[in-house]
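Changelog excerpt

This revision adds worked examples to the README so contributors can see how folded entries look when concatenated. The first example is reproduced verbatim below.
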Amino acid sequence: MNSPRRENPVLITSAEPSYQDQLAARRRRYAIVMSMRIPCIVLAVVFAKIWWLALALLLLSVPLPWMAVLIANDRPPRKAEAPQRMQRQALTGKKPS
């Protein structure tokens, strides 16, 4: 009744990464983008004498949290694949007339 199972799993190359792998990658991207905000604010304080540079660094740091959330919530799109169906010709070995 039970079919014998192979010890080595079948490799499916078109399978997308697991949910945990996708979540870990999105968390990593979020942390990277958010970690860029602190140096921008610190550099703005350091360059306070050069007002235009400090202002540019502060303005750069404002949209970073919003961008980090958008990047972190972005999942890869699902693949639209047509199902593989067995053709009748392949079953009988004859060409349809």
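The second example, added in the same revision:
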Amino acid sequence: MDSGSSSASASASGGTGGAGHGLTAAERSDYERLRRAAGVRHRRVRRIGACVLLVLTLLLAPLAVVAAWVQDTVSDTDRYVQTVSPLSSDPAVQKVVTDRLTNRVTGNVDVKAVTDALAKALADAGAPPRVVDGAEALTGPLRGAVEDVVHRTVNGVVTSDTFQRVWESANRQAHAAVMNVLTGERTGVVRATGDTVVLDVGEVVDRVQQRLVDAGFEKAAAIPDTDRTVTLFETEHLSQAQDTMRLLDVLGVWLPVLTFVLAVLAVWVAPGHRLMLLVTAVGVGVMMALLLVALAVLRRVYLDAVPPAELPADAAAAIFDTFVRFLRESTRTLLVISVITALAAFLYGPGRVARAVRTAARRGAGGTGRGLNRAGLRTGGTGRWLATHQSWTTGVTIGAGALALLLWNGPTVGSVALVVALVLVVLAVLAVLAAAGPAPASPAADAEAHGPVSP
């Protein structure tokens, strides 16, 4: 039996695998109707599932960003020090520290007692009353002079590099001590033992013991090596704080991963992958914009809640902005990535603008490639292969850019712009190289070169 008769037989049997009889017109109509209904139900289920995954992604996206930021800031000492380090060089914060230290120092100087003692000494020496009264009147000028000297001295220290190093060292030690308590670490000077926070003074005891021995007190070497800790405080809420820290570690690591997986599943489950990618990117971008608005509102609430007498508004603003700057940066980065992803999904669509952009890009690359070809710069088989596998090379290039951003440690808006620019340059070069290759042979020329194709 030839191929024509086989096709006719298969058509008559209705594709039933040789069941022995063909479908009637009514049976075929019912079959097509049921198949269309099953297809509609399948697409409806996929669409509902994609919508559920999309809603979960949008709800978790801002929480994932905040959880990752809190986890990095709270649990990572280096990240915490990097966060608070700029405060030591902020003019508003330096002014607050200088004023506080100046008031602390001058508050311990009793200027009136000095002038009273001077007046008494003059009176006892038989000085004229005018001179005695003049000594008592020196209280105000002397207090101002003391404050001026102390202020200039303190300001010189606070604005120096020494203060910045002390600031970073103090914050590092304090953060490490707090983390030892929250994580239950057994190392470090301050650590937690059950519900008790203790201070290990073993190193201090060793140094004191050695100095006493060096000073001739040989019996100091017999100091018993028993209890070398001092209890700072005991609380029944310490275990709850440690549990919260463990939960934060889990959320900070896995919540962003879960959100990303849900977004990928939403695009994969949806009947229209490109459209769902566009919707997901726009939705995540909107959530990031809302998170930035929420941060702005929270900043206003914080500034209104801080009493100006306790902390000036400019210093409070500097502290808030410095502390949340990495969160803002991460949010802006995700917003830019979302916009770029949505734009890419739109340009791959059937819209008139998208088609016009793709046509202009193809014409530009084609014209440049043909110009190189005419100039003698031909890419040969490589260009032909690139032209044949253009969709694959485009996908690999975009995937490499996405992987670079995924593996980038704390990508910023600048790094995203750099990666996108590199991807566009690589795509443009590949398109030009593909256009610079030899034109593909026509079917007639190919048949003449290789002989007739057997049926």
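Reviewer comment on example two: The longest strand covers residues 229-234. The radius of gyration is 38 Å.
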